[in-house]
Design goal:
alpha/beta; Collagenase (Catalytic Domain); seven-stranded mixed β-sheet; 7 helices; 26% helix; 17% strand
């Protein structure tokens, strides 16, 4: 694996009902952020996770400058599908947000058979992105291809995930369309340990992989009541997808400039408001317990972005 590869975010289970997220390497190209997993409490076993030694998980990205190669992926990159090569280059997350060059966003799905997103999670992601982004042509899913099953016990090295993502990011779209690549695989991450299991990873402002077997086995057992298990899993999956896409579009301080300070420096590229979707605990050590508390209080909806995150997006989306 090239040492410059930039990992955006990974979500991991570390102890019963607890999650953390990990992420960005500042030296890597084409887009990333760091989440809380590599910044769990300083005495946490998560900080001794061998995954932290993976170049994809190194944490200098917490201080990645906005002129990092990660934030300036060229618009003529195949991943960007940019037809407008005579236009000034700009960060890919801006093209995901704005509608002046790309009026439509397609979520290209490549999945192992039987491992696709839940219909409710698909619909919720589309609904939220249509509200957040300037995409007058709409946001939609396209099921592009079937990935080969490796079996539930297979341990995916990130290098294989990245190679597969690049090989399968091949959906042809019109010139006015930009894509986000979503992969659903079986098996689990090779970086899993007794202290932490990774649920998803996203990188290059382009790709997102979900380890669906890990999510399903974890959320079912973590539901506050057995009768709530399926609704709980839908909310958990949707929260994970939305949180990861939030990082792909530059939140928090992950390329997208903050209009007011709201980054939680102790937990990577996350919001300091505990009610915000981008708060570290929603993908942090207390992910399932936080979600369970919401359920027991009658709040089964997915957490939303706070005003500070909305203002960051609006500053790019509504710019002249």
């Amino acid at each position: 694996m090239h040492a410059s590869l930039l990992l955006l975010t990974c979500i991991a289970l570390c102890a019963p009902l607890a999650f953390y997220a990990c992420g960005e390497d500042a030296s890597a190209p084409e887009g990333s952020d760091n989440s809380a997993g590599n910044n769990a409490a300083n005495n946490s076993p998560a900080n001794n996770n061998p995954a932290n030694n993976n170049p994809a998980n190194n944490n200098p990205a917490n201080n990645a400058p906005n002129n990092s190669p990660a934030n300036n992926a060229p618009n003529n990159s195949p991943a960007n599908n940019a037809p407008n090569n005579n236009l000034p280059e700009r960060a890919r997350f801006e093209d995901l947000i704005r509608g002046d060059r790309y009026t439509r966003l397609v979520l290209e799905l490549d999945a192992v058979p039987g491992r696709a997103p839940r219909p409710a999670a698909r619909a919720a992601l589309v609904e939220q992105l249509e509200q957040l982004l300037d995409k007058p042509g709409g946001v939609s899913w396209t099921d592009d291809g079937a990935l080969t099953s490796q079996g539930e016990d297979y341990a995916w090295p990130f290098e294989e995930i990245d190679a597969m993502a690049q090989d399968t990011f091949d959906l042809e779209v019109p010139e006015d369309t930009i894509k986000i690549h979503v992969l659903y695989v079986d098996g689990h991450s090779a970086d899993d340990t007794a202290q932490g299991r990774i649920l998803g990873q996203a990188w290059r402002y382009t790709h997102l992989v979900i380890y669906s077997d890990t999510i399903d086995s974890s959320c079912s057992s973590a539901a506050p009541l057995p009768t709530l298990a399926e609704r709980f899993c839908v909310t958990a999956e949707t929260t994970i997808l939305l949180h990861e896409v939030g990082h792909l579009i530059g939140l928090v301080d992950n390329g997208l400039a903050m209009q007011t300070p709201h980054r939680d420096d102790a937990h990577g590229r996350h919001d300091n408001n505990d009610e915000c979707l981008m708060y570290w605990a929603y993908n942090g050590p207390d992910f399932f317990s936080s979600l369970g508390e919401r359920f027991l209080a009658g709040r089964e909806s997915v957490p939303t972005l706070d005003q500070a995150c909305l203002d960051d997006i609006a500053a790019v989306r509504d710019a002249e």
